[in-house]
Amino acid sequence: MPSPALELDADLLSRIADRAAAHDRDGTFPHEDLAELRSAGYLAALVPEDRGGWGLTLEQLTRQQSRLAAAAPATALAVNMHLVWTAVAKTLHDRGDAGLDFVLDEAAAGEVFAFGVSEAGNDLVLFASTVEARPLPDGSVAYTGTKTFTSLSPVWTRLGTFGLDSFSDDAPRIVWGFLDRDTAGIDVAEDWDPLGQRATRSDTTRLTGAIARSERVVRRLPPGPNPDLLIFGVFVNFEILLASVYAGIAHRAVELAAEAAKRRTSLRLGGAPRSDDPDVRRRVATAALLDDALDPQIRSLARDVDAAVDHGRLWFAKASGLKVRVTEQAKAVVDQALLVAGGSGYAASSELSRLYRDVLGGAFNPSTADSALGTIATAVLGPPST
Question: Is pTM beyond 0.85 here?
Answer without folding.
Answer: yes
